[in-house]
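Reply to dn_fold:

You asked what the input looked like. This is it:
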Amino acid sequence: MILNSKKEWVLPPYKIKAIEPIYTLCREERLKAIQHSHYNTFLLSSSDVTMDLLTDSGTSAMSDYQWAGLMMGDEAYAGSCNFDHLEEAVRDVFGYHYIVPTHQGRGAEHILSKILIHPGDIIPGNMYFTTTKLHQELAGGTFSDVIIDEAHDSLSEHPFKGNVDLQKCEALVQKVTAKKIPYVNLQACVNMAGGQPFSLENLRALREFTHRHRIKIILDATRVVENAHFIKVREKGYESWPIVSLVREICSLTDGCFMSAKKDALVNIGGFLAMNDEAFFTEAKALVVIYEGLHTYGGLAGRDLEAMARGLYEATCDDRFVAHRIQQVEEFGRKLMQRDIPIVKPIGGHAIFIDAKRFSPHLSQDLFPAQALAAEIYIESGIRTMERGIVSSGRDSKTGKNIYPKLELVRLTIPRRVYTQEHFEYATHVIHEVYLRRREIKGLQMTFEPKQLRFFQAHFQPIPCC
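and this is what came back:
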């Protein structure tokens, strides 16, 4: 069980009706597996993984209500009633009038970028996300980071490290003019900063700024439910607001959103683009037919649309689900801090982020310390994590040189409604074991590098002496 902020014991707001067996390889087998996977945890077979903390994308356990919805899939090519249900859910929960479904979030990113971005445009945002930034660049745009400075400091306890720095926004407008800024990309619970939220106060100030300069705000709503929870517990005046009301309030201050429903909407596949502008909607409908599928299914089966619609209601209309999830993540983080494991503070929404620079100070960033630590955690325990540092940041598109982010992190991402406290006790113990011998961790060199999004496919090998 978990103790909440009021020191009350909190039970999970669900019970388990089906299980999936877990098998554990011995250490020698795990070493062979990571070597075969070129020290890249993305290349591991899931059958070789004991506890999978690689991502929370599409890894949630669906409810009985969602599973029942799968059996009610209307697989008509056009005009599926499941699309009608999803459209109704998005209007009820988010408040946007128009919706275009996509196979997942990056499908929505692609269409959004092709419509709104023109060559030479600058897209400010509260820290980049990998696929979002790439789609912006492929459309001819350039991302500009306008997040507050505290977001780049893993030790800062700022409660809303996802906030936008309005002075940076103003400086950018003065430099390039508002005409070159199609929209501000506002990410809910900023992934690369450690799952850090923005405040409603900051969003309202940003809305005033963008109105003044006639710039849109496009919300990355992938983890908007978690962001709403943090507003509820951290921002004065919202303690009694239901999560669904906070989500609706956030969306009302933006011009549209894109969402990977594989996170907060509790499904294994799916996403959408939503907006209020009819002209934007008309263009998006045309492009989704080219790249995804008809505008009433967007590359998804009818049953997946139904599960998504039900998941949106489930995630937002019962505050206990997100509250328990955040408390589970916080409890895991506290256990790690008790063992002196350096993590990003304050603890964010969807994951624990280990600070690899502080964990392995003997390794320079050129030796990929976060990638090396992720591999070492797998060898020690069979737990799969992922790198969020220099590998994920990639190379500067103009110079071709590595980008050196201030944060060099290993992400331990918590799937929703999947693991118990016993699993996290195990994870805490084995990560501590790695920490005790952290000076033995060897750096890596990259032996294969794809052109884009290299963290998915890159190959590495240990450097004998570093």
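The domain at 64-318 is CATH 3.40.640.10 (Aspartate Aminotransferase; domain 2).
Hope that clears it up.
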